[in-house]
Amino acid sequence: MNATSDTPASAAASALGPDELDELDSLLDDLRTREEDVPQWEFCDGFLTALVCTRRPVPAAEWLPMLLGDGLELDVAEGEPLPLVPTFKDLAQQERFLALWELRRAEVQAQLDEQAESLDADNAFQPEVIDMRGAIASLPEEERAEMAGQEIPSFGQVWALGFMFAVENWSEDWATPRDKEAAQWLDGALESIVALTEDDTGKPEICMYAEDGPPSTSQERLEVFGEAIWGVYDLRQLWRSLGPRQETIVKGEQPGRNDPCPCGSGKKYKKCCGAA
């Protein structure tokens, strides 16, 4: 991971290295012994990225049980520590996961807040994705044979599914803005990520797992992947420019014009407080 030029110290400190990523994989593997539906880290990273882009900060009391629990928001007062989500073996394990999560969240936010000139730039946002098809194709023949018939996700597909999982679960915060230009901006960016959730059916030409590995990803897929990453930049910028969503004030039920005025005058509403 790379630090951004404007905040090198904080970004570098927040980056997850290989040891931390291995720790996360092991931690998620352990959670899976108690809950088989716990997702892979690639899905989690997509989910995390969507939360960074969401219009308001989503507290851990909301997102943690949605990602790794029963989906029910934790009942915790502001400023109080989170109760244990049963998927974790203890509070220490849960706190460690949250600490690693915060490191990655800070890194993603720092990268997205500095517009990169290209996706190859050192400070560009880099999703945590793996070319599973390339990884499996690089295995010895006997090991590949053991996985025959299994559905293997396309490059970036699991990450994009994690992103859209967060969007769908906080749909109110992702509601289309009234401004037409902003609405088009939102739709275009989301469409680019949705496209990444689809299967790569193009001709394999490139291996993203190893430079000299067998072809596993199409050129078209790489283009879709790049468009999705630029879409993430657009979403982060869009919601930052619009600010928090304004709550709609809902007025109470109004009396009919021929009903008694609620002020108690004894007159009809149209002749009293409802007079135009």
Automatic annotation (TrEMBL):
It comes from the Bacteria. InterPro entries: SEC_C_motif, YgfB-like, YgfB-like_sf. SUPFAM superfamilies: Sec-C motif, YgfB-like. It holds the Pfam family UPF0149. PANTHER family: ADENYLATE CYCLASE-ASSOCIATED CAP C-TERMINAL DOMAIN-CONTAINING PROTEIN, UPF0225 PROTEIN SCO1677. This is Zinc chelation protein SecC.
